[in-house]
Amino acid sequence: MISAKQLLGWLLSVRYISLLAIVASVAGTILMFIIGTTKIVKAWLVFVPDGFAHEAEKAPEANAAIAYVAQGIDCFLIALVMLVFASGIFNIAILNKEDRVEEAAGLFNVNTIGELKQSLGELVGVILFVKFLEVSLSSADKMTWEALILPGGAILLAVALKVLNLRGRDEGKPPEAPR
């Protein structure tokens, strides 16, 4: 028969399987930073190959460069989401409470699942906004009402995050009353 102490020890050792998610997220983060950097370099290569010509002559290249920059920012934001996820899982699942990094700044100070969800939700909202910017820049002359789905999703996500108040709930604070 297994004692409660042995069972607890086994269950606590199983948490190290989350290292797979952490390593995969860090690898994905590195990949997304490389892809984002490539997009920014492409923006420069599209815009500058023949020097700084007259503004009217460079309009198509400028639009393409702006689209590449928006795509690069999108890649960087996805990388940031993956990095926040990896650090949150590491802080929650791997470290003991007394070993947690409390001095970490902003998004990387994740101690509970609720804080992790809140941080990821905020970053997804920003990604939706950047994606809308990218879509609107690439199809400015042929916009349809369907393009409003992305900013609508960002607004709904922001409202949901405000209503849920995951950070305040985890800290034992009552949810803020709407102003």
Can you tag this structure with a few keywords?
179 residues, mainly alpha, single chain, 6 helices
Explain what the structure shows.
With 179 residues, the protein is mostly helical. The chain has one domain (15-170). Helices cover 69% and strands 0% of the residues. The chain contains six helices and no strands. The protein has helices at 4-14, 18-47, 59-94, 113-138, 149-164, 166-170. α2 (18-47) packs antiparallel against α3 (59-94). The longest helix is centred in the middle third of the chain and has 36 residues, at 59-94. The chain starts with a helix and ends in a 9-residue tail after the last helix. 19% of the residues are buried. The model has no long low-confidence stretch (mean pLDDT 77).
Summarize the structure.
This protein is mainly α. It is built from six helices and no strands. The chain has helices at residues 4-14, 18-47, 59-94, 113-138, 149-164, 166-170.
Query: SSE order in H/E notation?
Result: HHHHHH
The helicity comes to 55-70%
Q: Ranges with pLDDT <50 over ≥5 residues? A: none
What structural class do the secondary elements suggest?
mainly alpha
The domain tally reads 1
- Rounded to the nearest angstrom, the distance between the terminal CA atoms is 57 Å
> How many beta-strand elements?
0
Amount of beta strand:
under 5%
As a whole number of angstroms, the C-alpha radius of gyration is 22 Å
> Biggest sheet, open or closed, and with what strands and sense?
none
Count of helix runs:
6
Overall body shape: elongated
Mean pLDDT: 77
Question: Topology, please?
Answer:
Layout: H1 4-14, H2 18-47, H3 59-94, H4 113-138, H5 149-164, H6 166-170
Helix pairs in contact: 2-3, 3-4, 4-5
